Amino acid sequence: MKNNRNFSSFEGGQRRRGTSLPIIPIALVLLLVALLAFFWSRGGEQPQQRVEKVIPAEKLGQ
Q1: The overall pTM is greater than 0.85
Q2: H/E element holding 21?
């Protein structure tokens, strides 16, 4: 009795779907990366503002 099964890696009994990775986890990771990039761009170093000090009139003449 001859076994006619083919164990080649190219021809299997089970067919694989076209996409091996599920779509939902990839979309969640992309959303997380987009949120991180958004918060990073907003929360970075703030531009410096000018600070005006009040100098008494006695010190201005010195």
Answers
A1: no
A2: none
